[in-house]
Amino acid sequence: MKIEEINKICFVGAGTMGCFNALTAAIAGYQVTIYDLSLKTLMDVDNRQKAIGALLINHGLATPSIIDDAMTRVLVEKNLEKAVAEAELISESVFENVEIKRDVHRRLDELCEKTTLITTNTSNLLVSQIEDVLQHGERFAALHSHLGSPLVDIVAGPRTSADVTRLLQRYVSSLGGVPLVLEKENPGYVLNAMLGPLLTTAMQLVIADIASKEQVDRAWMLDRDAAMGPFGMMDLFGINIIFDSWKRKPENTDFNRQKIQVLSFLTPFIERNELGMKTGKGFYQYPNPDYQKSDFILPAAAVELSRQALITPLIANAIALVEKKILAPADIDRAWMAGTHLAQGPFSMLEDIGIAEYQVMLGEQCRAGLCSAELAATAERYFRESDLYQEQLL
Fold it and tell me: What is the CATH number of the domain that holds 271?
C-alpha cells in the first residue's frame, strides 16, 4: 500500500538495481519514472523489467497480472528535469564512482523541490562522501536495497531530518520491505559487511586448494539449509560486481595480499565474459546449475568446513559491527536473515556453538590465514566486555 506523502518516484539510473527498485515501487502502486543518460539503456528498460518480473513470478512473489499492471505505471524519460518534475522521492543508482554521484546529486538538489526526498542506492560509497554537495542536506539519505531481498538499509547523513528517516522507513514498509536504520554509516552497510568476508573466505579456500567450489557450496548448503552456496551467490550478484568491488579497495592495506589473489582468481571469468546468471555462465552453467540438481548435496562432504572456515569470520565480522556501534546483535541477526532468507543470524549461530568452542575455531582460522588478527582481537574484546558472554563462559 502506498503512503500518502509519496505518489511519484523518479529512479535515476536504468541499470539492474534501478529497474528492480522501480518495478518494486510500481507493484506497490507508485507512479514511476526512470531516467538514464543512455537512450540505449532506457530502451532496454522494458526487457529488464520483464526479466525481473519473471524472476519474481518464479519465486512466488508476484503473479503475471500484478507485473503487467505494475509496468503500466512505469515511464522512461531521457530529460532529467522532466523526470524529476512532481516527484516526491528520488532514488539514484548510477555508476559507483564518487565524482559521478556527486555531480548527479548536485544537479538533483538544484532541480528538485525543497520537499523532495533525495536518496542514493550506493553499495560502496558513504553518505558523507556525497551529501555535502546538496544545499538541502536535510532531505538526503542512503536508501540501499539488495537484489532479491526485502532488506533495505537506511542511513542518515549529518544533516538528515529525523522526519525524513521515519518517512523512508514507512516507504520501505509500504513495499513489503524490511527497513533497517543504521546508527551511523558503515562501509558495506550491515549485510554486505558480513557477506563480503564470507565470499572472500570461500574464494580463499579454493585459491589455496583447500576445497573445490562445489565442496564449499555443498558444505554451506548442508550446514545452513541454504538454496545456494557462496559461489552460487556470486553468480547471482554478478562476478563483475565482486571483481569491481575488489579493484576499488585501496592499495597498501591489510587487503593488499588478498586483493592480488582475488583479482587474479576472478580475472579469467571477466575476460571470458562469464559473469554469472546474467551471461548464462559463471562458476556454474545456467539455467539449471549443478547446485540446484537433486544429487548435489547428497555426498556428506565436510560440513565442518562450512562451520570452521565460513561461519567463523562471519560471526567475527558481525561482532565488529556491534563494537563499532552500527547496530545491536538482534538487529544484525534480523538483517542477515532478511537479506539471505536464512533461518539463523550470526549471533544465534554463536549461541549454538558456544563461546569456548568458537574461540578455538577463531584461533584455528587465524592460524590458517582465514581471519585477521585484528578481527580476532575485536571478538575477544567483545567477549571480555560482555556480561552475558562472561556468564556463559562461567
Answer: 1.10.1040.50
